[in-house]
Amino acid sequence: MDDEGQARVATVRPITIAVVALGGEGGGVLADWIVDLAQHGGYLAQATSVPGVAQRTGATIYYVELFPKAAAQAAGRAPVLALMPVPGDVDIVLASELMEAARAVERGFITPERTLLIASTHRVFAMTEKIALADGRVDAPALLTACREAARELLAFDMEALAEATGSVLSAVLFGALAGSAALPFPRMAFEAAIRRGQVGVERSLAAFGAGFEAAQSGGAAVAPAASIDHGTRAAPRAVRDLLDAAARDFTGDARAIVLVAIERLADYQDKSYARQFLARLARFQDIERQHGDGSGALLAETARQLALAMTYEDTIRVAELKIRSSRFARVREEVRIEDGQILEIAEFFHPRTQEIADTLPAALGHWLLRTRWARALLDRATRKGRVIKTTSVGGFLLLYALAKLKRLRRRSLRSAAEQAALSHWLNLVAATARTDYPLAVEVARMRNLVKGYGDTREGGQAPTSMGKLWTKPSPIWASRTPTAQTPVIPAKAAIESRGWSATECLELLPGKARNSGCPHKSRSVDAAKSSSASS
Predict the structure, then answer these.
(1) What is the pLDDT of residues 469-521, one digit of tens each?
(2) What is the distance between the alpha carbons of residues 70 and 429, in angstroms, rounded to a whole number?
(3) Taking burial as the number of CB atoms within 10 A of a residue's CB, which of 11, 136, 296, 356 is the most buried?
(4) For residues 423 and 300, what is the distance between their CA atoms, to the nearest angstrom?
(5) Is the pLDDT of residue 23 over 60?
(6) Pairing mode, if any, of strands 60-68 and 92-95?
(7) What CA–CA distance (Å, rounded) separates 6 from 492?
(8) Beta-strand (E) ranges in 112-190?
(9) How far is it, in rounded angstroms, from Cα 357 to Cα 54?
(10) CA angle centred on 427, ends 425 and 430, rounded to 5°
(11) Contact between 60 and 51 (Cβ < 8 Å)
(12) Please, are residues 51 and 40 in contact by the beta-carbon 8 Å criterion?
């Protein structure tokens, strides 16, 4: 080969592809398909991977480089291919989830001069998002905007929905989107042949591949969302049909949709009378909305939403009931794709604490257990370690079945008494606030979202740093916002924006939190908390 030919060969660069995927999404299979595709299409291929960590705090990065075999032969030597993606030098990034696409942007893998980004727009929430005291979810539109600005070209749609619709895995949809983008020099038939050579779940994978290919060809058109709940067109549960009909007449706007769903949720959680109690509690807020509302119906809708969630709190009875439902067994069988003749075994890990056991008991017995040292110490030792229960076994199923049957006694339990008292206090607070400051009342209603989950998570929301001491009388720092002693004090969005405080400064104002912070207001907030506690 002459010097000019050698120079041309030397300028040939590999096609660089990075796949960022979560565990169980088939990222490794996708990388194998790409390698097989290249090797059967006249390219040399090298694939490497760096495993992520568990619990959704990171993803595995699969990196593939493809180099034309003819160019290597012409040069008379094998190419030197990289083992890891280099920032600014990645041609294609395949992201199995929107946050992982944003992570790739943060790492510098995606650049406007070079990179085609193919990503699914669905979210799998990170641990930091899940454990946040309030709503810790990252703004999805902001992530999508960042990806669009960072990439040369963005191809994004909900690939998880297509995977579920075709009964396959997300990696097959990604592979189809890659083929549909025409970013690689291979025809569709070559992609499909790579799937067939894999010999695993071929038919479903080809269906998902085809769906991804068509979506990519249409420019990443969004997958149609699942049909929303429409109580006017679907049959309502017979037990609560009269309540649903009455609610449909009595409520309008956003509140109506929330209340209709809430009635079914509450009846399923407890019984029909429990759903009636929910409606009775909302009645006064309908009057407040008419007398003090701004026409948006925001207070009624938000109060209904938070009240329904609060009344269906998670306890040991609810957990047991959900674990043994036939719908759950069917869902697990579908997720793991059990074939005919295979046996499914489900092992659940339980670690109830003494407090949770006492909460399940009748109020008097629960109080006795928590106050009696020897009984509590005995139960503490017995529950020190968790227990694995196989719900697919007769013994394990019957154990949870018996626990779920305590549902009839739930309203007399220690937990129920505490929850109902806290709810009454919160509702009174929202109502009192609405009479003097409607926007602030909406924020007070939303703050109920701080209390959620169970165990340590729920205790964190109920601790003095949040719901326990937030509802206090005014202190000097709120004097400009609270004209009377009856007006509640809460670091809500409406109350702090005029002061220009950040969310962090707001949290620092909460009693207990400020003691260990550098908040400039900590001394007065602690003093105010002490005086409020004493007066209340």
Answers:
(1) 454 333 333 333 444 434 444 444 444 444 444 444 444 444 333 333 334 33
(2) 76
(3) 356
(4) 15
(5) yes
(6) unpaired
(7) 69
(8) 116-120, 153-157
(9) 30
(10) 110
(11) yes
(12) no
Model pLDDT for residues 81-105, shown as the tens digit of each residue: 888 888 989 999 999 989 889 989 9
Cα separation of 71 and 74, whole Å? 5
Q: Could you tell me which residues come within 8 angstroms of residue 531 by beta carbon, excluding any fewer than 6 positions away? A: 475
Give the count of beta carbons closer than 10 Å to the beta carbon of residue 505.
17
Return the structure tokens found at 186: 């291979």
Spatial separation of the C-alpha atoms in residues 33 and 193, rounded to whole Å: 9
Topology classification of domain 3-217: Pyruvate-ferredoxin Oxidoreductase; domain 3 (3.40.920)
Residue with tokens 């592809």: 17
State how beta strands 60-68 and 15-21 pair: antiparallel
Residues in Cβ contact with 31 at an 8 Å cutoff, skipping those fewer than 6 apart: 19, 47, 49, 62, 64
Instruction: Count each helix (H run) and each strand (E run) in the chain, helices first.
Output: 27, 8
Q: How far is CA 151 from CA 108, 115, 177, 494, in A?
A: 10, 6, 16, 37
Cα angle 148, 52, 222; round to 5: 30
The CA distance from 401 to 422, in Å, is: 29
At 104, is the secondary structure helix, strand, or coil? helix
Average pLDDT of the segment spanning 293-315: 92
Give the sheet arrangement for strand 116-120, strand by strand: 43-50, 60-68, 15-21, 92-95, 116-120, 153-157
Q: What is the pLDDT of residue 8?
A: 56
H/E run at residue 121: none
Q: Are strands 387-390 and 43-50 parallel, antiparallel or unpaired?
A: unpaired
The structure tokens 């920032």 sit at: 87
Residue 62 contacts residue 47 (beta carbons within 8 Å): yes
For residue 472, the one-letter residue type is: T
DSSP character string of 59-101: -EEEEEEEEEHHHHHHHTS-----SS--TT--SEEEESSHHHH
Give the number of residues written for the chain.
536
Q: What's the rounded Cα separation, in Å, for the pair 241 and 336?
A: 36
For the four alpha carbons of 226, 229, 235 and 237, in that order, the dihedral sign comes to positive
Give me the pLDDT at residue 10, please: 62
What b/e readout covers 180-199, taking b as 16+ CB neighbours within 10 angstroms?
bbebbebeeebbbbbbeeee
Identify the H or E element spanning 192. helix 188-198
Torsion angle of C-alpha atoms 356, 361, 364, 370, degrees rounded to 10: -30
Domain boundaries, the chain: 3-217, 463-536
